[in-house]
């Protein structure tokens, strides 16, 4: 219980310091995390990436579902949150990266990603950052890979449809605030994925 309160306080402080970067006032609920991860096939994935690791709301649940030989990269741009996550989570499959998810390709050693889990608030990012991030995701996602994303506005759907042939949406009404969960697959070729 103490960890939950500390996590919420830490998350709220990060939100106050960088509201466009964090996107929500509280960490994603456990139920929304499970609902979103249920939209993937994590147990079969060899390469997994989490974009926007935050305070770790997703990390434990992803690790529970991963195969023993999976490689899991968790990106967090906030150095304080990265340090906290590094202290809390020790798993040989996990690498916590203090860098922008726009640089994901630099960490993959040529591999494609089977599952990308995104907690990045795409609609609050500047247009160029959102475009770069989504273009990078389409470049590194395996041909049969999937990206799931949590958003607090349905407006990102039009941007996702420019990148992916298949975009499905669900609502997680009990999250605070209510969240839209997207499952995206079949990245379109780069020249078709106009922003």
Strand fraction band?
25-35%
**From the alpha-carbon coordinates, what is the Rg to the nearest angstrom?**
15 Å
Number of strands: 7
Characterize the quaternary organization of these chains: single chain
Low-confidence blocks of residues:
20-25, 191-195
* Number of structural domains: 1
Name the helix and strand elements from N-terminus to C-terminus, one letter apiece: HHHEHEHEEHEHEE
CATH topology: Rossmann fold
- Output the number of helix runs: 7
CATH C-level class is Alpha Beta
Global outline? globular
Distance between the termini: 43 Å
What strand order characterises the main sheet?
3-2-1-4-5-7-6
Structural class label? alpha/beta
Looking at this structure, what is the CATH superfamily? Vaccinia Virus protein VP39
What secondary-structure arrangement, pairings included, does this model have?
Layout: H1 2-17, H2 19-22, H3 30-37, E1 47-51, H4 59-65, E2 71-75, H5 79-88, E3 94-97, E4 113-118, H6 127-140, E5 141-151, H7 157-163, E6 164-172, E7 179-187
Parallel strand pairs: 1-2, 1-4, 2-3, 4-5
Antiparallel strand pairs: 5-7, 6-7
Any overview of this molecule?
The chain is α/β, with parallel strands linked by helices and 195 residues long. It has a single domain (2-192), classed as Vaccinia Virus protein VP39 (Rossmann fold). Helix content is 34%, strand content 25%. The protein contains seven helices and seven strands; from the N terminus they run H-H-H-E-H-E-H-E-E-H-E-H-E-E. A seven-stranded mixed beta sheet has the order 3-2-1-4-5-7-6. Helix 6 links the parallel strand 4 and strand 5.
């Amino acid at each position: 219980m103490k960890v939950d309160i500390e996590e919420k306080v830490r998350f709220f402080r990060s939100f106050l310091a960088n509201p466009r970067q964090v996107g929500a006032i509280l960490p994603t609920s456990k139920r929304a995390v499970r609902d979103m991860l249920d939209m993937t096939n994590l147990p079969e994935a060899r390469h997994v990436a989490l974009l926007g690791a935050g305070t770790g709301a997703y990390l434990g649940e992803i690790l529970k579902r991963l195969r023993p030989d999976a490689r899991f990269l968790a990106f967090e741009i906030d150095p304080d949150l990265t340090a906290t996550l590094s202290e809390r989570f020790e798993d040989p499959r996990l690498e916590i990266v203090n860098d922008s998810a726009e640089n994901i390709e630099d960490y993959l050693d040529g591999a494609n990603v089977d599952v990308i889990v995104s907690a990045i608030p795409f609609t609050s990012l500047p247009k160029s950052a959102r475009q770069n991030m989504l273009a990078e995701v389409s470049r590194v996602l395996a041909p049969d890979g999937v990206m799931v994303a949590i958003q607090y506005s349905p407006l990102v759907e039009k941007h996702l449809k420019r990148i992916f042939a298949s975009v499905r949406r669900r609502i997680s009404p009990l999250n605070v605030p209510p969240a839209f969960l997207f499952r995206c697959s079949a990245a379109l070729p780069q020249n078709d994925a106009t922003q």
